[in-house]
TrEMBL record, chain A:
<dbReference type="InterPro" id="IPR052383">
    <property type="entry name" value="Anti-sigma-E_RseA-like"/>
</dbReference>
<dbReference type="InterPro" id="IPR036147">
    <property type="entry name" value="Anti-sigma_E_RseA_N_sf"/>
</dbReference>
<comment type="subunit">
    <text>Interacts 1:1 with ECF RNA polymerase sigma-E (RpoE); this inhibits the interaction of sigma-E with the RNA polymerase catalytic core and leads to a decreased expression of sigma-E-regulated genes. Interacts with RseB.</text>
</comment>
<dbReference type="GO" id="GO:0005886">
    <property type="term" value="C:plasma membrane"/>
</dbReference>
<dbReference type="InterPro" id="IPR005572">
    <property type="entry name" value="Anti-sigma_E_RseA_N"/>
</dbReference>
<protein>
    <recommendedName>
        <fullName>Anti-sigma-E factor RseA</fullName>
    </recommendedName>
</protein>
<feature type="domain" description="Anti sigma-E protein RseA C-terminal">
    <location>
        <begin position="131"/>
        <end position="179"/>
    </location>
</feature>
<dbReference type="Pfam" id="PF03873">
    <property type="entry name" value="RseA_C"/>
</dbReference>
<keyword id="KW-0472">Membrane</keyword>
UniProtKB/TrEMBL annotation, chain B:
<comment type="similarity">
    <text>Belongs to the RseB family.</text>
</comment>
<dbReference type="GO" id="GO:0030288">
    <property type="term" value="C:outer membrane-bounded periplasmic space"/>
</dbReference>
<dbReference type="InterPro" id="IPR005588">
    <property type="entry name" value="MucB_RseB"/>
</dbReference>
<dbReference type="GO" id="GO:0045152">
    <property type="term" value="F:antisigma factor binding"/>
</dbReference>
<dbReference type="InterPro" id="IPR033436">
    <property type="entry name" value="MucB/RseB_C"/>
</dbReference>
<feature type="domain" description="MucB/RseB N-terminal">
    <location>
        <begin position="25"/>
        <end position="206"/>
    </location>
</feature>
<feature type="domain" description="MucB/RseB C-terminal">
    <location>
        <begin position="217"/>
        <end position="312"/>
    </location>
</feature>
<dbReference type="InterPro" id="IPR033434">
    <property type="entry name" value="MucB/RseB_N"/>
</dbReference>
<protein>
    <submittedName>
        <fullName>Sigma E regulatory protein, MucB/RseB</fullName>
    </submittedName>
</protein>
């Protein structure tokens, strides 16, 4: 029966049938109205009429995901940090509209934020940019090392090794982050002068 | 005929030869800086390190007001974009909400100084014009930026003879081993701004983060007593490392071309032997001495990093 009704909803959505009685029922039944809404959305998407709405919806989700991320500069008071996040969220929404490509990319990035956090809490910093190849005790012998490499010996040693790898990854990521934040202060005055005087 | 001085150089790196070659290398580097600042270009390059290749797109242009526009995007893996409009640089990365900083330069695989005043490096580096070769299907001039002391890597630059643009960049140790390479795979120089940059013009960048005054110049209870000549402190702060949430004290040093980070924090271990890894040319070195963990990160040889780590001394009041 329900199957039947859904079919009717579909027909109504496609304007094949307009039975007043059925429409009354549709409006009163939460499940059917939701279905009605979905069918229309599907239709709209197929006709390409909804891009703005959908973008904003995804953008809101990213904003929420991003909201959960730690703030960049740790000692900023939590209130200030929250305000900053809110501001970024607001600008992100504006950012979405005119620069469609980046907006889509940012959505993808947002989804990846979630994906990475859920699936690999163990090695979340394992990104191509921060991949580490070999480890060598200074002054000692080179050890063949990859993340799959398993020392034959005790588990404590293995744990220490994994902890060390994680430490290295974290440091490398932080180093790159700090450079970005510090370039604010780096001595760029000479560049500035040159930039203001565009060549020929 | 041009090969003869190059051969001489290969045989003996005598200072006199370097001096005569100096006169040739600097105009090349100045031309590179001009090109990187003023040309409308759209290029792709690949960073080769650790038997891996990271592809990037890089767009740059100057709009009608003379303001620079720039986009750098990593093409593999999670999206990482750097956008710049004049002096606002925005980073869009998977780990953090998008943010902007006030800066004239983007931070990426290409050292920012190459678009600036390379002569400011003359105290610590020699510039040597080595010779010609063919790169990206174009005649190229090879210029080496070589450290005067043995504590740093050399940068090798292949520059387009026609436009002065960068075609290839490599970091090499003193034995001439390449540790990291940036190979351009495509270069378009146009009169007009590219479509991506015109979109960037219309885009409102994320809010500039306000870094509290004095945050990057905190007084810490320790100091680094040895660094190669030319390094100056550009940042000193306390923060938490994002991945581990561990609080650290941090100093960042820069010699114009290379950044070196030093981290100090109390450790649960009393002693831990020095260990390090290489990510391309970047070394990450870590050790625990007397319950204090010291880490050094940067594009420097491991030996240099070790000496820097050993030179960290705690000032009296911070002793455990």
């Amino acid at each position: 029966m329900s199957e039947n009704k859904l079919e009717t909803v579909s027909s109504v959505a496609d304007s094949y049938q307009a039975n007043d009685e059925f429409i009354e029922e549709l409006l009163n039944d939460a499940h059917l109205s939701a279905t009605w809404e979905r069918y229309h959305l599907v239709g709209d998407v197929m006709r390409g009429e909804t891009s703005a709405t959908i973008n904003l919806d995804i953008a809101a989700q990213i904003a929420t995901a991003i909201d959960k991320e730690p703030s960049i500069v740790a000692p900023v008071s939590s209130a200030t940090a929250q305000r900053q996040v809110n501001k970024v969220k607001a600008t992100l929404l504006q950012f979405t509209k005119p620069f469609a490509q980046v907006a889509i990319a940012a959505s993808a990035a947002g989804l990846m934020v979630l994906g990475v956090q859920q699936n690999s809490t163990d090695n979340e910093t394992l990104l191509p940019a921060t991949q580490v190849v070999k480890t060598m005790p200074l002054g000692g012998v080179a050890e063949p090392v990859s993340l799959n490499f398993q020392p034959v010996s005790r588990t404590s040693e293995k744990q220490a090794f994994i902890a060390q790898q994680r430490r290295f990854q974290a440091l490398l990521a932080d180093h790159q982050q700090q450079i970005k934040l510090s370039s604010v202060d780096s001595s760029t005055s000479s560049i500035q002068n040159k930039a203001e005087d565009p060549a020929k | 005929m041009k090969l003869i001085p190059s051969l001489l150089l290969l045989i003996t790196v005598s200072t006199s030869v370097a001096a005569t070659e100096n006169e040739k290398a600097e105009p090349w580097l100045e031309r590179l800086a001009q090109s990187l600042q003023s040309l409308n270009f759209s290029t792709s390059f690949v960073v080769v390190k650790n038997n891996q290749a990271e592809p990037y797109h890089w767009f740059h242009g100057v709009d009608d007001n003379g303001d620079e526009l720039e986009i750098l995007s990593l093409l593999n893996g999670p999206r990482r974009d750097v956008l710049r409009k004049k002096n606002i640089v925005s980073y869009i990365e998977p780990e953090l909400p998008p943010y902007s900083v006030v800066s004239q330069q983007i931070t990426g695989p290409i050292p920012a100084i190459l678009r600036g005043d390379v002569n400011s490096l003359a105290q610590t580096y020699d510039f040597i014009s080595v010779g010609r070769s063919r790169v990206l299907g174009r005649p190229a001039q090879l210029i080496r930026i070589v450290s005067k002391d043995p504590h740093r890597y050399g940068h090798w630059l292949w520059l387009d003879q026609k436009t002065g643009m960068l075609l290839k960049l490599a970091l090499a140790n003193r034995a001439g081993q390449l540790l990291e390479q940036v190979q351009f795979t495509h270069l378009d120089i146009t009169k007009e701004l590219s479509e991506s940059l015109r979109q960037l013009q219309q885009t409102q960048l994320p809010k500039v983060i306000e870094i509290p005054e004095g945050y990057q110049a905190q007084s810490l209870q320790w100091q680094v007593s040895w660094l190669p000549a030319g390094f100056t402190k550009v940042n000193a702060n306390r923060h938490r490392i994002a991945a581990t949430k561990k609080p650290v004290e941090f100093m960042l040093f820069n010699d114009g071309l290379v950044d070196v980070s030093v981290y100090v924090n109390p450790s649960e271990d009393r002693q831990r032997a020095t260990d390090y890894v290489m990510d391309g040319a970047t070394v990450v070195l870590n050790q625990v001495v007397n319950s204090f963990e010291v880490s050094v990160v940067g594009k420097i040889p491991a030996k240099t990093a070790k000496v820097i780590a050993d030179s960290v001394v705690l000032t009296a009041s911070a002793a455990p």
